[in-house]
Design a protein that fits this description.
Length: about 90
């Protein structure tokens, strides 16, 4: 009878330790999860900013301005245009 009681007490203690360990592990994983969520949100904000910046740099007016000012490009005049027909 004593052996059965001892085994039950031992099983009870082992189960309690298992529960404490599982809760601790859950807390650690939850903290890591929240950290990753926060990092994901920050990356999404940065991605949105970069998309906006890309759209700004790719505007046709901006490209035309850079082509004229930095590269010295201009539309050819009518007498400089040659039409090639097959």
């Amino acid at each position: 009878m004593r052996i059965v009681v001892f085994v039950l007490i031992l099983a009870n203690v082992a189960t309690a330790i298992g529960v404490v360990y599982a809760r601790h592990e859950h807390r650690q994983l939850f903290i890591a999860f929240k950290h990753l969520e926060r990092e994901r949100d920050e990356l999404n904000i940065d991605f949105g900013r970069l998309q906006l910046e890309q759209a700004t740099w790719a505007e046709s007016n901006r490209i035309d301005q850079v082509a004229r000012n930095r590269l010295g490009m201009a539309f050819p005049s009518a007498d400089e245009t040659v039409v090639v027909r097959p």
